Request: fold
Amino acid sequence: MQVFSIDFLCMFAFFYIKTFNSSWDYYPAPNHSILAVSEDKVLKLIALYNKNRNIPIEKDIFEFLTKMELIRDGNLTNAGFLLLMKNDSIISDIELGHFQNEITIKDGITISTDLVTEVEEVMAFVRKHISKEFIITANPARIERWDYPLDAIREIILNMIVHRDYTHHGNSSVKIFPDHIEFFNPGRLPDQISIADLMKGDYVFDCRNKQVARIFKEIEWIERYGTGIRRIKDYFKEYGSPEPVFENFQHGFRVTVYALNSRDTEKDTEKEILSKN
Reply:
């Protein structure tokens, strides 16, 4: 009997899925049934779905999951498991770290929960470890100004979670340094899209996880497919921050963003070096 390697089988599955113009998350989760789904998380997703709708969907769990194709032919799909898992799973691991420098970590956790909760938890971790200042104006209320535009950070987190290659054994990670943050995801850009194409917006959008993206669009967490990079760049430009760096890195994709005051920090460092010489 001929034995095939795991890599060969994964490659075969990838091309099989591409042949039918679908994505991995659309297919049944091989090791999970409907019992792996949290009823509370389904109800939370229904509430998010109904939030801005004039005609809300009924809170019938099975009907909702079927309508959203998170259950197909009675089987829980990979997207359904990722979005609604009752218990933690290593398939969704994200490593979060707050670093003093490249080798000294001050705080770190691994989260392995459903994708909806991960968006909230990653955002909370970033907010915990970045700085903000209060600007006093003529108005009684103070203005908060964070090191980074929070709308852009949330957009990056959403893009990470939607576009991650969940079939890869590697983890996503967020590394927060004093003057920058690195967001890394398994799954490089498609071969037909270059970084230059990405920066110009000159590409046809190809979603790795169509079902996950559809759900995030339905609950209005993302606007339109393929516009996230442009919005991230616009947010940083309007905020007056350095432009983010987007790059294929090792087996995945990395986004590096710089704090609002990082240019001033670089200038101060240069002055300090010159004064010592």
Notes: Residues 1-20, 265-277 have pLDDT under 50 and may be disordered.
